[in-house]
Amino acid sequence: MSFEHGSYEIVTVPCNFDNYAYLIIKDGEAAIVDVSESAPIIRAVRDRGVSVTDIILTHHHDDHIQGLDTVLGDLGGDIRVIGANADKHRLPKLDLALEDGDSFVLLGSDVRTMDVSGHTIGHLAFHMPDANAAFTADSLMALGCGRVFEGTTDQMWASLSKLAALPPETMICSGHEYTEVNARFAITIEPENPDLLARIERIKVARSNGQATVPSILSEELATNPFLRAHLAEVKSGLNMSDKSDAEVFGEIRRRKDSF
Ligand code: ZN
Ligand code: FE
Question: How far is the CA of 56 from the centre of ligand 1 (A)?
Answer without folding.
Answer: 14
